[in-house]
Fold each of these.
Amino acid sequence: MTEEVLVDDAQAPSREKLVGSASELVPLLQANALWTEENRRLREESIEALADAGLFKMRVPKRYGGYEVDSRTLVEVLTRLGSGCGSTSWNVAVWSITGWIACLFPDHVQDEVFATPDVRVCGTLPASAHFELAGGRRMGGGNRKRPPAASCHIRLGGQELDTHVPTRDELVRRAAELTPLLQANALWNEQHRCLHPDNIEAMAKAGIYRMRMPRRYGGYESDLRTVVDVLTQLGQGDGSTAWATAVWTINAWVISLFPDEVQDEVFTTPDARFCGILSPNSTVVPVNGGYVVNGQWGYNTGFLHSHWNMLSGMHTAPGEDPYPIITVIPTAKLDHLDDWKTVGLQGTGSVTTVAKDVFVPAEFALPMGPVLMGQYPTRLNANSPIYRPPLLQAGAVPMNGVMVGLAKAAMADFRRRLPDRGVTYTFYQSQREAPITHLQIAEAAMRIDLAQFHAYRAADLVDAKGVSGEPWTLEERARVLLDSGRTCTLAKEAVDILNTASGGSSIYSNMPMQRIERDIQAIKLHGLQHASTNLELYGRIVCGLEPDTFFI
């Protein structure tokens, strides 16, 4: 028996260290890539460098001098190596995987295998092999029988607010408990073109509207990963409710960038809801003490249930060039047109808002240019990580949760109906027996997973930059928007697959699938989520060109 090598956990390199070591090897791997192809094997120089960097030890047990790294570390290291040479990266992946499998063998086998420093283990599992599983089931090539089917407190606006900040899991649990109510009221929302009052009240009681509010007003200052998870859960209940909540969540964050005295006024209403439009579709004329606003704004989601409305317009004054400005106006001072008669997101009540000679105090207006550049007038929120990111990026991410939620709702609805549905004009008594169904459900599942990946990547980047306070590059800004567009595309594709597979019975108005299809189509057309626009923007920046928009 060989002598064990005991390694202190502290000696195992961190993820950052291993990724850095892999990055340093990239020039060497690139230089040897052609030799590797011509000789159909890895160059010894590359192998020695990988060994010196400790990359063969990543999945080796620590008692043999290994690192026992997690899968995330392994993926990031292999990603770096792959940018140097695909063949090298693939070999390291195989050695890491097969080395891990060797760790499942009896300990005396491991003692012999890992006696060689930086040992490399290769292997294969033949597709023609047969495996006997518990219960007599066989797996592998050849003919086989079908297996059997298995069985402190704050007083605000006269009310005392609990300042306990719930965890992400707690907020997601609260949202999940609302799902049956949202599903039950979904048809009512569509028929009345607004949200059911029970939905509004239940979400207020669950604290959903406080996620992006400052803590000094009873808010939670939740990170975007939490917001995405909560909105994903709400989206599984009802698309219109989730979309309106996303808008209120985004605008609660935006109002937190305004001067602190403005926040003192707007947040006196517990669980205040804010709707808003960024497109400057009005005139904002300066007068003594403030501005007079006139104009119309369409697609104003949540207006019918909001307390305040953030509306953008063009600052217009004699002898000055116009520039966009954001104003905050009580919804009681605004009119609206009953024009929200659409085929998707019907329950959001996204009517056109009308302002006629509405006076806005000077402190309730902000020039848009500095805001887009990340220059916010708030003092008390300046050191909070969630209020540091740029406007467009912080605003785009919450919407991703709604789309992932709708896609998951489509999957749940499809699976719920699957066992009892036959396939018309075939011998299939249950749709789940048809091979095409297996392909469809797998394709949809993969797209949902990928959509969630992009939603999380965008949220994690915005959250991390907020914590670090590091400046944003243009490419990072564009990538968040790219991820949002991709989330939308993938979620829509998943819903399309499931909707197509749901058959003619799914077109009835009381069936969730047709509503989900219409809702996600409406979201896909939103300017901030438009995949083609965001692809072009990211591509321009990667190619070294200036962005062709101020909205980045």
Note: The radius of gyration is 28 Å.
Amino acid sequence: MEDTYRFWRAAICIATGTLTLALSHLASAVEGYSYIPGAGTVIFSDDPSLFRVALPISYVEAAIKKKIIDGTSDGFKVNNANGTFFAFFSDGADRMQLEVRFDGAVRSGGNSSDVNCQARLLLSMPSAAIPDFKVQIDRVGDPFCRFSNDALNALAKETINKGLSQIKLGADAKLVNDEALEEFKKSPEVAKRLAEGTARGNYCMDKHNRQSICITFEWKEPIFKRYIDDLVAKAPSSDKAARTAGFKTRRAALRKASPRHDTVAPAYKFPSGVRSYGDMALFGGLLCASGEEEGCVLLRCSQGKTGQFWRSPAHVDQKPREGEAPFSGDQFKGVVGYFLARKTDGACPIDGLEQQTNRERFARYLEFIRAQRAPLPSPDLALDYGYRSCIEDPANTTCLLLGQEWTWLQFLAGRHNLADAIPADVKDPAAIYGYNPSHLEWLAAFAPLGDNAFQTHLVGVEIYLLRKAGLNPPTAQRAAAILAARQPKNPFYLYLHLGKKRLVSDQLREKCFSEVPSGEREEWAWQSDEGKKMWTKSEGWDCIFMLNNMLEKD
């Protein structure tokens, strides 16, 4: 009797617990600003003081089904789970009735039984301040289970329902967990704006006409627009022309002193930090785009014979360390920088391939990507499909190509006369992923600083790439001003905002003209919070990148 009760208690707790976990996934969707098919939608209005996140019910359903099959608590195991799981009924502006049903086989010890269980829950997501927003889950009526084992079935009505009537499912599923709140507090201005907003949830249909759980974020006034406008107004200004005397000499000295990493070919070493070389595809691509040929060679040597790009030449065809993917969205930006460079045809001294044109290399890359179509959000929850830029990807999203990546791939395919090589199901990134370059202002304003300042640096990289592509929309100009306002002594952000001005050259003299001990040349300083003073450990290549930009002929 106790075993029977414990099974149902475990099953219903797993169902409701997994549901609230799935809802918490919405928080990461908000941070991503991109749509992952099957996992969440961010829909921006023209004014970012109102936007909505949609989580398809199918995602929640599949997550719970997997959880039940993987195993319940209290020693019970469900061998399979079949049939219709969810039926939703709208119940007011902020409430939903959810009917959960499953058929399966359960075993405990040496006993087993087929089981059919049903329960109806009430989900309430009333309007509340964002830090306090909760998903409340309560029962509607009495749940029940029917077992094929007569003895268990006889006990079901008396024991299970009596036990469940005493269980309060409660409401402690906060959308923004305490850990996330602590992260927000590191940026006081962002935390303040977050606290001023409200969130509310309801049943809805997403833009693909799928049943979804929607959460709407709203601010009574356009405070985000005002905040962004204030940042733009606070951006540093400089009318004086840059002073570049001595820049060429300093660049030559840095080229000699900056570290390089060994490869399998003794004759070839590529730019890197003293100990860090794992993310050099990004930095090598930036160097290449700035005119540094060693950066271009680095990228050519980071492409394997299959067409796949790797984190660095030292990683090509090597098995990644446990928990690490061989590539990422960050490194993808370096690939874009390489293919945007005008004069990068050539060979790699270690790949054994003949000299190839950029078009040939890009065609091989697209061919590789087309072969990496993968189920999303995971092989176990195949609700949709997407493409990855690597094969071994333990996180399954580290190499996932989203809206921003496909926008670049389409642009580059057009430049190389390879538009037909783009898969048909991703030819409209804006419609599929919800990506829009106008989001740059939002990202520049709210990307984190501190320990995660590299995310803010990636916004700067995107602006830099847009300009290298001959694109400079007003939203990119404003985003550059926002970055400069938030980190007014970062020469990369100042350069994006001001161009070749005195304020930029002065910062470079301060940060790139002092000697760094050879054993400490480790950091690409511009991706760090300026308060950490990482230029004191500059690898040198970051300075070469900036000196190239300042010396480039207009």
Note: The chain has 19 helices and 16 strands.
Amino acid sequence: MYNKIKITRRHIECMSLKSYKIGKEEILKLKDLLFSDKTCNVMEITNESELFRLNCQGYLVIGYKSGAVAFQDGINDYILSKISEINPPIKKVEKENDLSLNMRVNPDLLEILKNKFIELNIDEIKVNTTREFSRFIYEGSQITFYKNGTIYSQKNHPKFRDIIKSILGAYYDQNKIIIGQDEVGKGEYYGPMIVVSVSLNYNQILELQLMGVKDSKELSYNQIKTLFIKIKELNPERAYVQINPKKFNDLYKEFQNEGKTLNNLLAWGHAKVLNELLQKIKNKVDPKNITVIIDEFDRIRTEDAIKKINDLNLKIVQKTKADEEFISVSTASIIAKNIQIEILEDLEKKLNKKFTNDNWVEWLRTKDNYEYLKLSFLTNRLRDLKIKIPQNIGKNYYDVLRISNKIEGIDLDFKSEMPDQIHDVSKWFVCFANTNGGKIYFGITDKEHLIIGVNDPLKIEERLIGIARNACEPPMNIEIRHLEFTSNISIIEVSIPKKYSLSKVKSSGKYYHRISSSCDEMSSYEVEEFVKKNINTGENVDPKQTKE
């Protein structure tokens, strides 16, 4: 019997998938091959066009009745090897995005853009969904402004680009400098970790927006290489820190011996690369005009690391998923990914061997390969290590492996460690309680699903219970389990029940709910709808405390 895993359709639609057309007969053969593989778990299909939907080794694979197969990039080699067993001619499905324009701006500017479009007599039409802010018709194609700041045009009109540039350019402070920072390679067992810092003025940001720059995780390797060339043409000041596997392993061990975590290593890398970039621009820019934006992973450790290296009183903005929201961070992620791709391609040519997410056991067989591997991460991937059976398996070993193989969604979340901020944890609890309830696992990384465990589980349990009772309103009763992976690695499972009366974060008075795998503040409308749906609970809600 196959293990079915529930996942929301919206979550899947946000993932970056590769598509290949292999034929209707071949897709049936591929289905049989994958269904016979014990590493693939059956998932529920979401529409009639799908033939099957699987979670293979932690990655999504979808087969379509039309004869196409789509899958996440991390399982590329595995799926192509299965297709080669069938041996059909493979034709990649190309998307015609080059004729459209997809850019993102600050949502606060949408009202200004809308009014300017109306002034220019561009026809406004009715919006189709609640996600849309406004919609226009321009020279025969539709232009949609979304509330999150995304602007999509069916055609990439030069005149339209000029209009956008003239409108946005007038509201950008040309003296301001935005520094975006991001890293790649922190969760992959092979190759270096690259941390990039890039300095941009608003003219450059505007050009990058019109290029369609976005988070590198949403782009193919060819798109990353193409955009990197265009970024270089803009000639922004940039710096990067390259931490090769051997150095990474040494630093990771050093930090662990000091009672520190991977986040300390990341914070050190971000502080170091920022300092290198500031040395380049210190005589060109007033520090008062600099804003640094970082994809948040640990606010306090990052700020402390930066203060130790640089005494400038810079404005530091840390925000989760900043690589999706801010062009500067997206640009840094593209630069970092391009550097990583070039390094790995050179290594693969030199060694005549491919790095993939599913061939790491093969790399471990030869000690000569160890200089290319982040061994500190591989110790947590015992499930595939057939050549070395662990002697210290814990009582929940196989349960933890099964859990780590699941995909985050509306009722499941992974956290690498317990954060210092009480507000973060109470926000997560409220999110699940106001949706369908769910589980949070501490000690499993959210992106790579690596089992790293937690320090002092009993102390963490005590904190979690205290937060649920004292930082959430009304107080919550949560269930906590300690799951023993090995004799020295344990994770914590927190079960949050669904609440039929609204829960809020006590310190801020704000309401949150779970949208796919993210935690969003509830709008006044959403709060009202919740109350109407659960009117018999008698919960009183102050609309002033909700997001407008």
Note: The first helix runs from residue 9 to 13.
Amino acid sequence: MNSLLIFMMGLAVAGSVAILKMNMAVQSIVDEGNNYMTHLSEWRVDGAARGTREGLSKKVAATGNSNNNNNNYAAFDIQQLAGDLVESFSADDGIASKDRTEFIVSFPKDSESKSFTSCQCDIVTTDCLDVIACMPGLHDAQNEKALVWTGIELRRAMKATSELTGSPENNWDLPLGKGLQYNLMDTWRDWQEKNILPASYDPQGHSIFIHEGRYPDCLVETKLPNGTNTIRFMGHSCFYEGLAGPEDSAMIEDEAKRWFETAIPNGTETEEQVRKTLEDFFGDHQPGFEAQEAQQQEHYSSLGNLMLFAHTTRMIFNRRPFLEKLYQEKLKSVKMSDIHPTIRKENADTDKNNNNNNTNPFNVALHIRRGDSCGKHVEEKFIDYESEASPLDSIAQIGTKRMCYKTEVYLDAVKRIRALVPERRPIHVYLATDDVGHLVDEITHKHGSNTRDTYGIDELYFLDYSRKHFNYKTDSIEDEENGEYQPILGETAVADLWLLSHGHAFVGHKGSRFGKSSWLLAMARRNNFVPFFSVDGHSFCCEIDESCAAVKPYITVENCLTFGHEYLRLDHEDYWTNGSVVRKKHFLERHNDQTSEEA
């Protein structure tokens, strides 16, 4: 049974909204004039009024006069936002996540026409950049900060209404991006079925990608007899705080907190009401601690599953403070105006007419793979990289069939984003790659002023790590022969994931576990949908060694989030010829088991 979901992603800034269609639910929009928020009417299902829960019914408006605060913010009803957010995460159509086979987000270009077909995103595909034009909430600074603040409170409520116990699986030999995804799948299943979240990482764990001795914060000052320090936090616990500790906070989160303190009067009362709304929501949806085998996932909409999955990623990716310091030390940027004099003059002329030209940038997370990702090109003696992005029906990419793509393929997607974003917002690109020196030079110099004039990039951010560590001696970084490089690759992986989490939009590789994780982190930090373009022919829902078009009929919301053939230890036939084809078998077996139980 399929359903089409409609959600208001931007929560309606300046009279225009982004809506996710869910079965037959329809929201009517009431324009509040100059307010930044367009308030929603009650949700209606099958023509009948849907009563809100007691915890969602009390929506005390937090309003302020724009003349009475330093930031000139208009009145903003953040409690309405929180209530509408959790309503959009709920499903009343009775369809379990394992049976949802459509994952479509729709955004009307014209809110007055209530047309739900003019602009939409299929999560089980590779290109959703066009929805940028349909999400005005992406381009309003106050709405953006309100969503971020609400996301922080949403994660706090998830933890407050769950049992915090135990630790994630150690995954000592997995690269940190892949290990993060596997831990996420475990955490998600435990939270869905038992309402349990891991309290902390095992301080006695181990990872070949983390060398604790490099980081004083992971050591104890007490000296051993030989004069060395003892290790306090081993393995993943060296990098990650765990859910029981305070949440890692950086620029995006800090700005949202300052906004709330400045723009929202009666802040303490409003915060209490928002927390009650969010905790009541989870209290109504999550199983009790004693319900060890409860299946509750059907109570969340497809959007609810996706966004809560993203927030779960953010909770387990809770960096220790020293990693932010290392990140800031390695973070570098290049302004196109500093390289090309003609751009500098154009910017100066623009600044005379637009004081906000260098503020509120639109960030593009750009993930470019090189090195061990280019199996096909290594096998064929480094023939030219692919000149076009792969379509959804392209082949499974395994071993010597894995492809890399010309830089222009990525930059063309950035060019599309520039055309969709209001001109007043500069485009800042956050580049994560295993070939940073060459690519920064190519983007800033080879393309010359085209970097700005053609592709629309105003500033480029990257991390200044030596990439010689990516010159692997064997095909797999996990191999013992690459042991000397493994520890620094753990640090660069965490830093690159954090770099990409700044994006308002994502361009890169969704077939990569690393790409998937960074996209989820960005959505959680923004507490909003992040439009995307995947160059490798793979969507968020399928693995790099699958043919996405072939397995799409067997993708459900549930297995989109939690399927991994290695993770599930599923057997293959003719893997090196056809790639992974076991999702179909896995889907049919579960479907047949369910049919038999119902019969």
Note: Residues 555-599 form one domain.
